[in-house]
Specification:
Elements lengths: L2 H4 L34 E7 L4 H10 L6 E6 L5 H12 L2 H6 L2 E3 L12 H16 L5 E6 L3 E2 L3 H8 L7 E2 L2 E2 L5 H6 L1 E4 L12 E6 L10 E2 L4 E3 H8 L5 H9 L6 H11 L7 E2 L4 E2 L18 H6 L4 E2 L7 H11 L34 H14 L1 H4 L8
Parallel strand pairs: 1-2, 1-4, 2-3, 6-12, 13-14
Antiparallel strand pairs: 4-11, 5-14, 7-10, 8-9
């Protein structure tokens, strides 16, 4: 069922076994050994034609009852494929029990090299703000991404961090991007046409702005709820000013959020210059990372990153990650502390309190990376630098 239809109906309550009204554990700030309550992540998972199965697999690999999920197949996919995606979601018992997975019924066109990808991301984030009031971070994934840690690992580590942090790779060094991504003027057909078309490039180019400093980065990032609300609901005009500027800019998504963060006094000290994603770029660098290959497996895992990109369709590396890192069986969600079934036998067919986390080795790898990123010498000297 699409989001537009679901929003008009009375929503059933989540299973009380997942969210007991009387919690079994509380956080005592005076007792350091008492773990803080786990946060919640809002995931926007998107794909295009033929990506329905990949989206379901990515959803299962990143699933946790505490999180919120919004799935999107763009308008290059058929209505039938979008309907099948919704039916597949409805067929999974835990998704129905937690009531935390929605499918967008009215799809957007998304051109990754245009500004429609930014429009779609803001659209998805605004829907997630409306769907749930209790999530803390926002992550947008596409069908070529995959997690390298369990959600228990990720939520455990994030529970010890300020909820204001934004994990965004960024730089003010523009270099080759000036002529390729920032000075060109484009018209993205995804913003005004109802059928597939090509990006239109104007013959003229524009000068770079001097009212604010441009920053570029990766299209993947982990944003705080505070930042998302600032961009969508806030009264400061900076997000809207930059949205107008980037509406005719190639690859707008990779520059919009870093530029907001670094030009805002409210947020320029909340940014961590790493997006917690493993990605390899060719030399000289291209706009998109190269596909992950088998030789990347060990350095990818040891990097401590929470996610990786880009994977081929049905890449055997995904099976290896499922087996060796996530302990995920084919067609199953990743088991966590909320799963009470017999190990390796539909572990998550019986569930309990979603606040119970069971972090593993992935949490230790991620912790090592974040400690390095937040060390005094790294976090303050590598943030919003005007080069």
């Amino acid at each position: 069922m699409g989001y537009n239809e679901r929003s008009k109906l009375a929503q059933p309550e989540p299973d009380p076994f997942l969210f007991p009204k009387t919690q079994t554990h509380f956080h005592d700030a005076q007792n350091p050994s008492d773990p803080p309550p786990p946060p919640s992540i809002a995931y926007l998972i998107s794909g295009s034609t033929g990506d329905s199965a990949r989206i379901i697999r990515l959803l299962s690999a990143t699933y946790h009852p505490r999180n919120r999920y919004l799935l999107h197949l763009d308008r290059f996919a058929s209505r039938a494929e979008r309907d099948r995606l919704a039916v597949n979601v409805q067929s999974v018992p835990i998704f129905n029990a937690a009531q935390n997975v929605d499918v967008i019924g009215k799809a957007d066109f998304v051109y990754p090299k245009g500004s429609s990808s930014l429009s779609f991301t803001l659209h998805g984030a605004s829907m997630l703000l409306r769907l749930a009031s209790n999530w803390d971070w926002f992550i947008s994934l596409n069908a070529g991404d995959y997690p390298l840690v369990t959600q228990d690992d990720l939520l455990h580590i994030l529970s010890y961090l300020p909820k204001s942090l934004n994990f965004v790779s960024h730089s003010s060094y523009i270099g080759w991007r000036e002529s390729k991504k920032l000075k060109p003027i484009i018209v993205d057909p995804g913003l005004y046409l109802s059928e597939k078309s090509s990006l239109f490039y104007a013959s003229q180019k524009r000068e770079l702005p001097n009212a604010y400093k441009l920053f570029t980065g990766s299209s993947f990032a982990i944003y705080s709820r505070n930042l998302i609300e600032f961009c969508i609901l806030g009264t400061d005009n900076l997000p809207r000013t930059l949205l107008m500027y980037f509406s005719n800019t190639p690859s707008a998504l990779s520059s919009y959020f870093p530029t907001i963060l670094c030009n805002s006094r409210q947020f320029n000290k909340t940014i961590v210059n790493h997006n917690l994603q493993y990605a390899n770029f060719d030399k000289p660098p291209k706009e998109e990372p190269r596909k992950v290959i088998p030789d990347d497996f060990d350095p990818m895992i040891q990097s401590g990153a929470a996610f990786a990109s880009k994977f081929n369709l049905n890449d055997p590396l995904l099976d290896r990650i499922d087996q060796e890192i996530l302990s995920r069986g084919r067609g199953d969600v990743v088991p966590g502390g909320w799963c009470l079934g017999e190990p390796r036998n539909s572990t998550c067919s019986v569930w309990g309190d979603a606040d119970v986390l069971r972090p593993g080795l992935g949490a230790k790898r991620l912790e090592k990376l974040i400690v390095k990123l937040l060390s005094n010498g790294t976090s303050t000297t590598n943030r919003c630098i005007f080069e």
